[in-house]
Specification:
20% of the residues lie in helices and 22% in strands. With 977 residues, it is α+β, with helices and mostly antiparallel strands. Helix 2 runs antiparallel to helix 3, helix 6 runs antiparallel to helix 13 and helix 10 runs parallel beside helix 14. Keywords: Hydrolase, Protease, Serine protease.
Length: 977
C-alpha cells in the first residue's frame, strides 16, 4: 500500500484535474468606473460555485497608504469539489468617497486554507482617478418671522424635557428641511419602449454608465440634466426560461418592470425639466419621480423624545380580533395562504414569528425567511436579513453614530413587526393574528436615514423607488395576499388611470394579472383615501376604534390630535362624500386601528407621539407586545381575513366588491358578510361595507348542502414538473404554481386536467401558462368532514436549493444553478429533520387524512393513499397517489426522506369524476352530494352548476325532491353500492 502522504498528493492532484469549470473568481471591477469626489467608491467580484464572498451587505473598511487604498474581503474557498455548492454570484461592496486624485485600489481576499491556515491573496490592483470636488453644504432654508419666533421660544424650552416633543413637532411643521427628516435622492423612473427598432433598456443603461459616453445617445436628449448613472429597478434580473418568456411577451406588465430603469442626477437638478424633455421622446414609454410613499403609522424622524407619560388605558386586549369574530372563524378554518408584506422588516427572532428554535425545534411561527428579502438600502446594499433593527448603512445626514463598519442601529423600529403580528402571530402566544397559519413573506423597503446634527437619531424611511420592486418580487414568489400598510395622497382620483405606465401602477397590474388579493391602508389624515388603497384593484382598509365607529381622535377639531395643530395621525381617511359616478375611490372595508394590541420589536419604539411600540401602554407592558395606532393596523387585519378565505378555496379570484346577489369573488364575500351588510345597513362613505364577520365569510366560502354549512372542501394539489431541474413540486395555490412556471428552469403541469379550471390566471395578450393539472385532491381546512373519518394533518411545503445536473458548469446550458427540490412533509418530526438537512420551510398546502388502522376499512370513501418518495440519483422527492405508485417507483422514486420516516403522508382523493358532472368524486364525498348522480336532488340544475369546486356556491344542490340522495355516503351504507 502507498504511504498516506502519497495517497493525499494523488487525491489533491485528482481534485485539481477534476475541478469544475464553474470554479472561478473573475477580476473585480470598480463602481463607478470613473468616480467623482462625492461618489462612494465600490467594487464587485464575480465568482463561481467553489468560492463565496460575504460581508457585501455592509460597507467594507479600507486602509490607505499614500495613494494606495486597500480592502480585505472575507471569503470561503473550497478545494474539494464535493463542497462546491455556493452557486454563481456577484459580491458587491462599497467603501467611502475619496478626494480628487490618482489612486490604486488593491483588493485582497482572505480565507481559511486546506491546512487550517489563514490565506491572504491579492486579486486585483485597480488604478483609478477621482475627479471633481465634493458637494457644498446646502444652507438651511430661511425661516419666516413666525418660525423664528417659535425657534426662539423653542431654545428657551429646550431644557424642559417634557416639552421637547412639542418643540420638535413645531419645527416639523414650520421648517421641515432644517431637520433632515427625509432622504430624497435625485432620481427618476424611466421605462423604455420595446417596439421593433427601439433601443433596449440595456443600451440605455450601458450608455448612462459609460465613461466617456458615446457622442450619440441611444435616445435623443438622454443627457439632459447631466445624469450620473443608472441602474435597473429590478436588480435581481430574470434568467433562463423566465427571461425567454419576458422576451417573447415584451408588452406584459412583468416585462415592462424588467425594463424599468432608475436614473440618477446631480443634487439640484431640475427633474421637472428632465421629465418634460424625455417624455416627448417616442422611445420613452414613461418617466416620473418615484411616488412619495410613507407608512400609514408614521414614524417621527430626526428627533429625540423623552419623558413620555404612560398611556392611560385599561388592560389592553385584542378588541379588533373580537370585532372581526376571528375565534369563531377559526373553529371552521384557520387559514394557511402566503401573505406578502412590503414593510419595515420584522423582529426575525420574535418567538411569535420564528419557525424554529436555535436547536432546530419547530415553534410554529409563520415568518418565512426563504421568501423574504431586504431591498430597502438599494442601490448600496441588500441582503436576506429583514430584521427591523439590523445594523445598516445610512443615508442623508451625518449626525448619527456608526460602528467601525459604517453601520448604524435604528432609533425606531416595530412597524413591520406589529403588522406581521396582526396578520399571523403564532396562535400559541398571547398575541394571535387574524390568520392562524398564514405564511409571512416580508420584503423590507425602508432604509436608515441620519438626522441632521446635533440630533443623533437614526430612523427608517421608506425607499419609495423600491416599493414597485417589492410588489413585483412578492408576486413572482407566489403570494396570494399582498398587504400594503403605506400610501400617500395622490393628486388624481385614479392615479393609475391617469398614469398606467407608472412603475407602481405596472406592479399593481402584474399582481392583479395573477389574481393576487391586494389590501392597503386608507391613511391617517381624515382626508380622501390614500393611494394605493384608492386603486380599484385594491381593497381600501379604513380604521375604526373600540366603539365600532370611524377612528377619529378629535372629531371636528385639531384639539386632541396627537400632533398639536396637525391632522396627521388624527383619524382614518375615508371617501369624503358619496360618489354616484364612482370616479373616486370608496372606502371598502374597515377594521380596528386605534390602540391595537399586537407584536412589537422588543425594547423598541416606533412612534412615541402616537404611543406606538414596546413601551405602550406603559410600565409592565413590554417584551415584544404593545400598542400602535393607524390604518397600518386595519390593513393587515383585513389581509389576514383574506388569507383565511383564500385558503378555504384557493381557486376563487379577488373579483370586485358588490352587495347584490351573485357568485363574485373574495371581495364580494367580504362585502356581503360585514356586520353592517348582514344587518341590512347600506354602504357608507366612512365605513364602506363595514367590518367583516369573518365566521360568516368563511361559511359563505365553504357553502351549504341540504341547508347545513359544510365542514370542508376539496381542492386540486397542482402538480408541477421541471425537466430542466429534475423536480416535482405540488401546491394548492395557483399563484405559487405560476411562480414555479416562471422560475429559471420553468415547471409545467403534470397529470390529469382539473374539471372546471381550464387556465391559471394570466395577463391578457400574453402567452398562456400551461393548463392546470392535478392527480391528487386535498382538503382545504383542518377539520375532518365526518366524525367517523380520521383526523386531518397539514402538508408542509419545504424546499432546498441545488444545482442541476449536479456539478454542472453554470456557463454551459442546460445547467440550472437556481434549481430546487420542493416536497411535502406531514409531521413535525419530518419537518425538523428536513430543516436540519438544509430544507427551508414554506407554507401549508392543504390537509390530508392521517394514517389510520385497520386499512382499508378506516380510509374514507373514495380516498386513497398519498405517498412521498425520493429518487436519490436526482436529489428529488415526489408526491403521488397509490394509483400512481407503480409508475413513480419504476422511475426510481423509492427512498424515504428523512431516512427513518414513513413514506405514507396520509389519504387524499384522486381525479376521478364518476358521474361526469365536472366535480371530482372526492369533492362530492366531502361536501355531501352524490358522486354517482350529476344532479343529486333531481331538479334539473346540476351539482357542478349549483356548487362548483372552482367558484362560490350558486345554490344548494340538495334541497329538491331527490335530496334523499344526499349525502352521497348513504348509498354505500351496509356495503351496498
Amino acid at each position: 500500500m502507498l504511504p498516506s502522504w502519497i495517497r493525499t498528493v494523488i487525491v489533491l492532484v485528482l481534485l485539481v484535474v477534476a475541478f469544475p469549470s464553474s470554479a472561478y473568481v473573475l477580476p473585480p471591477t470598480l463602481i463607478p468606473p470613473a468616480p467623482r469626489a462625492e461618489d462612494v467608491v465600490g467594487f464587485e467580484i464575480p465568482y463561481g460555485e467553489c468560492d463565496l464572498f460575504y460581508g457585501s451587505e455592509t460597507p467594507i473598511p479600507v486602509t490607505q497608504s499614500g495613494m494606495t487604498i486597500k480592502a480585505v474581503v472575507p471569503s470561503i474557498h473550497q478545494t474539494n469539489i464535493a463542497f462546491c455548492l455556493f452557486g454563481n454570484g456577484v459580491a458587491r461592496y462599497q467603501t467611502r468617497a475619496f478626494p480628487p486624485g490618482a489612486y490604486t485600489f488593491q483588493i485582497d481576499r482572505t480565507y481559511t486554507g486546506f491546512l487550517g491556515n489563514q490565506i491572504v491573496e491579492t486579486i486585483a490592483a485597480i488604478p483609478f482617478t477621482v475627479t471633481g470636488s465634493p458637494p457644498q453644504e446646502v444652507p438651511i432654508p430661511a425661516l419666516g418671522a413666525p418660525a423664528l419666533a417659535l425657534l426662539t421660544l423653542g431654545l428657551f424650552l429646550l431644557s424642559r424635557k417634557r416639552l421637547a416633543p412639542f418643540l420638535c413637532l413645531a419645527l416639523l411643521l414650520t421648517g421641515q428641511d432644517a431637520s433632515a427628516q427625509t432622504y430624497a435622492p435625485n432620481v427618476v423612473q424611466l421605462l423604455v419602449r420595446a417596439d421593433v427598432g427601439d433601443p433596449s433598456s440595456d443600451d440605455v443603461l450601458n450608455y448612462l454608465n459609460s465613461s466617456p459616453r458615446s457622442p450619440k445617445p441611444p435616445i435623443a436628449n438622454l443627457d439632459v440634466g447631466n445624469p450620473t448613472g443608472a441602474r435597473y429597478l429590478l436588480q435581481q434580473r430574470a434568467e433562463g426560461d423566465f427571461l425567454d418568456y419576458l422576451n417573447a411577451n415584451p408588452q406584459s406588465s412583468r416585462a415592462k418592470l424588467e425594463r424599468y430603469l432608475i436614473v440618477e442626477y446631480p443634487t439640484g437638478t431640475n427633474l421637472t425639466t428632465v421629465i418634460s424633455t424625455l417624455s416627448a421622446e417616442p422611445q420613452v414609454l414613461h418617466i416620473s419621480k418615484p411616488l412619495p410613499i410613507r407608512f400609514s403609522s408614521a414614524v417621527l424622524i430626526g428627533y429625540g423624545f423623552g419623558g413620555e407619560p404612560p398611556l392611560t388605558l385599561a388592560t389592553p386586549d385584542q378588541y379588533a380580533r373580537v370585532q372581526l369574530n376571528i375565534d369563531s372563524a377559526w373553529a371552521r378554518a384557520g387559514g394557511y395562504a402566503l401573505v406578502g408584506l412590503a414593510d419595515n422588516g420584522l423582529a426575525t427572532t420574535h418567538p411569535s414569528l420564528r419557525q424554529f428554535s436555535a436547536t432546530g425545534q419547530y415553534l410554529g411561527g409563520n415568518f418565512i425567511p426563504v421568501a423574504s428579502y431586504d431591498i430597502g438600502s438599494r442601490p448600496v446594499a441588500d441582503d436576506a436579513n429583514v430584521d427591523e433593527a439590523e445594523p445598516s448603512v445610512t443615508f442623508g445626514g451625518n449626525g448619527c453614530p456608526h460602528d467601525g463598519n459604517g453601520h448604524a442601529v435604528a432609533s425606531y423600529a416595530g412597524h413591520g413587526t406589529h403588522v406581521a403580528g396582526l396578520v399571523a402571530a403564532n396562535s400559541d402566544g398571547q398575541i394571535k393574528g387574524t390568520c392562524k397559519n398564514c405564511g409571512l413573506a416580508m420584503f423590507r423597503v425602508s432604509r436608515y436615514v441620519c438626522a441632521a446634527p446635533p440630533v443623533t437619531d437614526v430612523f427608517p424611511d421608506v425607499n419609495s423607488e423600491q416599493i414597485p420592486a417589492a410588489l413585483t418580487y412578492l408576486t413572482d414568489l407566489g403570494v396570494q395576499v399582498l398587504n400594503q400598510s403605506f400610501g400617500f395622497q395622490a393628486p388624481y382620483t385614479d392615479l393609475c388611470y391617469s398614469a398606467p405606465q407608472e412603475a407602481f401602477c405596472v406592479a399593481l397590474a402584474h399582481a392583479a394579472s395573477k389574481q393576487v388579493m391586494m389590501v392597503a391602508a386608507s391613511g391617517n389624515w381624515r382626508q380622501e383615501i390614500d393611494f394605493p388603497a384608492s386603486d380599484s384593484r385594491v381593497v381600501a382598509a379604513g380604521g375604526i376604534q373600540e366603539s365600532h365607529t370611524l377612528w377619529d381622535e378629535s372629531p371636528g377639531t385639531l384639539t386632541n390630535c396627537p400632533q398639536v395643530g396637525s391632522n396627521s395621525e388624527c383619524g382614518s381617511n375615508y371617501a369624503k362624500a358619496p360618489d354616484p359616478s364612482n370616479e373616486r375611490a370608496d372606502q371598502e372595508l374597515v377594521a380596528g386601528s386605534a390602540r391595537i394590541w399586537s407584536l412589537t420589536y422588543p425594547n423598541m419604539t416606533w412612534n412615541p407621539i402616537i404611543k406606538c411600540g414596546d413601551n405602550y401602554p406603559g410600565p409592565g407592558y413590554a417584551g415584544g407586545q404593545g400598542l400602535c395606532t393607524g390604518t397600518s393596523m386595519s390593513s393587515p387585519e383585513i389581509s389576514g381575513v383574506s388569507g383565511i378565505l383564500r385558503s378555504v378555496n384557493p381557486l376563487v379570484a379577488p373579483s370586485t366588491p358588490t352587495v347584490v346577489s351573485g357568485q363574485g369573488g373574495i371581495r364580494t364575500v367580504l362585502a356581503q358578510n360585514t356586520y353592517q351588510a348582514l344587518a341590512g345597513i347600506p354602504k357608507s362613505n366612512q365605513l364602506g361595507f363595514g367590518y367583516p364577520n369573518t365566521e360568516a365569510a368563511v361559511k359563505r366560502m365553504l357553502g351549504k348542502v341540504a341547508g347545513a354549512a359544510i365542514k370542508n372542501r376539496v381542492t386540486p394539489l397542482f402538480r408541477m414538473k421541471s425537466t430542466g431541474a429534475s423536480d416535482y413540486a405540488d401546491t394548492t395555490s395557483p399563484q405559487f404554481a405560476l411562480a414555479l412556471r416562471y422560475a429559471v428552469a420553468s415547471y409545467t403541469s403534470d397529470g390529469p386536467t382539473v374539471p372546471g379550471y381550464s387556465a391559471f390566471p394570466y395577463e391578457a395578450g400574453t402567452t398562456p401558462p400551461p393548463i392546470p393539472k392535478a392527480a391528487a385532491y386535498v382538503l382545504t381546512t383542518e377539520y375532518t368532514p365526518r366524525a367517523s373519518y380520521p383526523p386531518l394533518r397539514p402538508l408542509y411545503m419545504m424546499s432546498k436549493g441545488r444545482v442541476w445536473p449536479s456539478g454542472c458548469n453554470p456557463d454551459v446550458p442546460p445547467c440550472v444553478v437556481n434549481a430546487a427540490d420542493y416536497t411535502l412533509m406531514a409531521t413535525v418530526s419530518d419537518v425538523e429533520q428536513a430543516h436540519a438537512g438544509g430544507y427551508e420551510l414554506r407554507t401549508i398546502q392543504g390537509y390530508v387524512y392521517s394514517p389510520c388502522s385497520p386499512e382499508p376499512s378506516c380510509i374514507p370513501p373514495g380516498a386513497q393513499k398519498l405517498w412521498r418518495a425520493c429518487k436519490t440519483a436526482a436529489s428529488d422527492c415526489a408526491v403521488f397517489l397509490e394509483s400512481e405508485r407503480s409508475t413513480f417507483e419504476a422511475n426510481g422514486y423509492t427512498s424515504a426522506y428523512p431516512a427513518a420516516s414513513s413514506k405514507l403522508l396520509g389519504y387524499a382523493y384522486g381525479s376521478t369524476d364518476s358521474d361526469g358532472d365536472g366535480l371530482v368524486d372526492g369533492f362530492e364525498h366531502v361536501v355531501g352530494t352524490n358522486p354517482l348522480m350529476s344532479d343529486s336532488d333531481g331538479i334539473g340544475f346540476g351539482d357542478a352548476m349549483a356548487f362548483p369546486m372552482v367558484g362560490l356556491q350558486v345554490s344548494d344542490p340538495c334541497l329538491g325532491a331527490g335530496s334523499v340522495n344526499c349525502p352521497g355516503e348513504k348509498i354505500f351504507a351496509n356495503g351496498f353500492q
